[in-house]
Predict the 3D structure of the following.
Amino acid sequence: MDKMISCKDLESECTFTACAGTEAKLFEKILEHGRTVHRTEDFSPDIYSKVRASIREGYCALEDELCKYGECCWEEERGSLPTL
C-alpha cells in the first residue's frame, strides 16, 4: 500500500496532497513542497513528528483516477501551485 499525506492533515489551508510508494519517497515530495511553497528549509523534530503521524496508507493509482474527474488536489505536480 502507498503512503499519502495532505497539508490539510496538518491543519493548513494548503491543498497540497502527495502520494508515493514508500515513506522515504513521500518525504522527498513533502520536503520539496515545504521548500517551494511554504519556504521551509528543514523540519524541526516537532514538525517531523507531526508530519510522520499524519501519513496514511492509500493507493496512488486511485488518486490519479479520481483526478480525471476533478476529485483530487495534485495541483503542484500538474504545474499549478496553490496560492497561500
